[in-house]
Design a protein that fits this description.
With 99 residues, the protein is an all-alpha fold. The protein has a domain of 65 residues. The protein is 72% helix and 0% strand. The chain contains four helices and no strands. The longest helix is centred in the middle third of the chain and has 38 residues. It starts with a helix and ends with a helix.
């Protein structure tokens, strides 16, 4: 079950129990109303917890992606390098001499 489905199911269940709780309270059935209210509170918390967990997982994923270092693009440094597709450098090439 996806996070959105679970969150929606928990919120819908809490709303339904809240409506039933109100109906029972109007009919002076306090014990049943109290029990349904208790369960509804847990469903609301479960829905909120699922939402927070998904938001935190997305934040961790974004952070991991931002921490990945991109490889630098190769920039042509001399005509020998360009003509040989990066296999050979010129004798006076500054990139080759610093390696």
């Amino acid at each position: 079950m996806s996070h959105r489905t679970y969150q929606t199911a928990a919120a819908t269940g809490a709303a339904t129990l809240g409506l039933c709780c109100t109906t029972l309270a109007i009919n002076s059935r306090w014990w049943e109303a109290g029990m349904l209210a208790f369960v509804a509170v847990f469903l609301v918390e479960a829905s909120a917890r699922e939402s927070r967990a998904h938001r935190d997982a997305l934040a961790r994923e974004r952070m991991a992606r931002s921490n990945e270092q991109e490889e630098p693009l190769l920039v042509p440094c001399c005509s020998f390098w360009t003509s040989s597709a990066g296999a050979v450098h010129a004798p006076d090439c500054h990139t080759w001499s610093t390696r």
